[in-house]
Amino acid sequence: MAKTLAYKILEDHLKEGRLVPGEEITIKMDQTLTQDSTGTMVYLQLEAMDVEKVQTELSVAYIDHNTLQTGFENADDHAFIRSVAARHGVLFSKPGNGICHQVHLENFGVPGKTLLGSDSHTPTGGGLGMIAIGAGGLDVAVAMAKGVYSLTVPKVLGVHLTGKLAPWVSAKDVILHVLQKLSVKGGVGKIVEYFGEGVSALSVTDRATITNMGAELGATTSVFPSDENTRIYLASQGRESDYRPLAADPDAVYDELLEVDLSTLEPLAAGPHSPDNVKSVKEYGPLAVDQVAIGSCTNSSYTDLMKVAAILKGKRVHENVSLVIAPGSAKILRKLAENGALADMIAAGARVIECACGPCIGMGQSPKSAGVSLRTFNRNFKGRSGTKDASVYLVSPETAAISALTGVLTDGRDSGFELDAIAGEYFPQNENLIIRPDGKAKAEIPVEMGPNIKPFPLNEPLGDVLAADVVLHAGDNITTDDIMPSDSRLLPYRSNIPHLSNYCFETIDTGFPARCKAADKGVIIGGDNYGQGSSREHAALAPLYLGIRFVIAKSFARIHRSNLINSGILPLVFEDPADYDSFELGQRLVIENPREQSGNEFITVRNETTGKTFRVIPNFSEQEREMILAGGKINMMRGLK
Predict the structure, then answer these.
(1) Distances (CA, A) of 625 to 598, 600, 637
(2) Is the pLDDT of residue 641 over 80?
(3) CA dihedral in degrees (290, 296, 299, 302; nearest 10)?
(4) Which of 195, 346, 374, 600 has the most beta carbons within 10 angstroms of its beta carbon?
(5) d(Cα 492, Cα 575) in Å, to the nearest integer?
């Protein structure tokens, strides 16, 4: 039977289960990555499992999020992660080495391998022909400890690419077009697989841009074939020996199909406040711009920044625009310095900042009040930039650079400037910013734990009655940024759940934490796609700390649903979505015999305040139900019932 590339790789790594959509499987996990924003919790959890060395072929701990060191907290987290990495055989990427996904693509990604990362944009590795999946930190910790990962088999959505991109149209416009067609919910329960003759017109870094933003579709992951362009890229990084050709069978059948003719695309932009609010640049512009930010794991590659440098060379950034550029890795920054491109950027008036996530996660460079910011990033959720009333537009590096010069959102095709192809370069290996384990036994290496690092909260086994007060009635597309904001104020406290919990849902309802504390146990009512966005398990851990015991929504985003289950919080779906409108704050909801009902097709919930009952859908796999009964994954692993 003809196979898709995604299923070929999954089959090659299958340990348990059947490769049938909707069924649960366990696969071998070759590699993992963590970053420091989620990593402290991952390594606290890994330590709690009391394992000696990780069971993966390769695991890397990156420091790329919390690099703004205005106090001791971030530096303490870095020291903690470094010490635990050394104890368990994990590589450590020092601050300044670059953004995890870009650095991993350059140094460690291998076609046909599997990768699990505690960051939702881990699917970037799909640009190299990997099955690369973002997950919650606890799932990554378990994968490191046991070398496996369990998931529900996704369907495969095929994107058939034909044609070739026109000048001033880039890979960013491809994924914005896909988001425009499918929406932020269009990839839920699916792997997005790209194929067709148009693939050969895209470089590996082009493909990585597309797979990176596949996370905004809600997809499990996205993947491209491994072909001659893959070989060329790996050779440029000194890793041609890692090349392996991979593709779907010619007659592979996809569960769904989307046709994209690259030659028909035009420069696009995603407007406030969602990555799928996509229109052409011409439709949005001309729009006066206050800030332009270029970088992030989506668009900070060498090719992206060389295009930016070519556009800026010999010109001047508009007097009303602040242009900031963050290269994706130290390797890229070094090459830009060697070939003069960095000097061209600086001479034009750009501010070049550290090789890190930075502005993408609200870690500095927030726009002015009510400002308009063009960003080459992957998310433009309200307030994510650090300025609540800012209007953030997601664009390509080419559109960002030309707009920085004109001062308005500009379609580069109207500029009269011709963009030349970027010549290939060789990037010599340099591990001066990577620390490899020295082979010492775990017991010989002490854990460095600063005073800001607090234990992660644990739930209790599910009881005979589950009763909680409604403490929030939320709308559709609630993001993990909404649930647990992430900015320069709060990122230093990602290892301190008690402190973070005071800011839970602050962008939605500032009274939420106090209401939870008054209720003792709480329930959240959510709309469609509840928990979209980042993989941060803090969006489950902070509510757990505040007493949230179940969430009822119209639908859940994949990673957040898993994080809730890992914490022993029940994610339940309305049987009848119309029931969503029937709740008020303070109403008490009761589930009798939840242990028994969790194994049923439906669970009956009684609204004790109104006297009415309604049904919800648990849809737990056998392993998920075991976690729910135990009160979370850690408890299950400890043998609690």
Answers:
(1) 7, 11, 13
(2) no
(3) 110
(4) 374
(5) 40
Return d(Cα 380, Cα 237) in angstroms, integer: 32
pLDDT tens digits for 605-631?
999 999 999 999 999 999 999 999 999
The pLDDT value given to residue 490: 87
Contacts of 433 (CB under 8 A, 6+ apart): 93, 94, 96, 97, 330
* 49 pLDDT tier (thresholds 50, 70, 90): confident
- Cα 2 to Cα 412: distance, rounded to the nearest angstrom: 42
User: How many Cα atoms within 13 Å fall on the side-chain side of residue 171?
Assistant: 29
Looking at residue 522, its pLDDT comes to 97
Please, what is the Cα angle at 54 between 51 and 55, to 5 degrees? 110
Catalytic residue annotation: 64-65, 119, 379, 534, 536
Per the CB < 8 A criterion, the answer to whether 374 and 289 are in contact is: yes
Place of tokens 């579709």: 217
Q: Do the Cβ atoms of 586 and 609 come closer than 8 Å?
A: yes
Q: How far, CA to CA in Å, does 392 sit from each of 30, 212, 371, 450, 544?
A: 37, 19, 8, 36, 31
> Over the stretch 486-532, which tens digit does the pLDDT of each residue have?
878 888 898 999 999 999 999 899 999 999 999 989 999 999 999 99
Kindly state the DSSP code that residue 350 receives in the 8-state scheme.
P
Any idea what the Cα angle at residue 134 is, between residues 510 and 545, rounded to 5°?
35
Pairing of strands 548-553, 221-223: unpaired
Q: Model-level pTM greater than 0.90?
A: yes
Q: What is the pLDDT of residues 100-154, one digit of tens each?
A: 999 999 999 999 999 999 999 999 999 999 999 999 999 999 999 999 999 999 9
Cα separation of 157 and 189, whole Å?
10
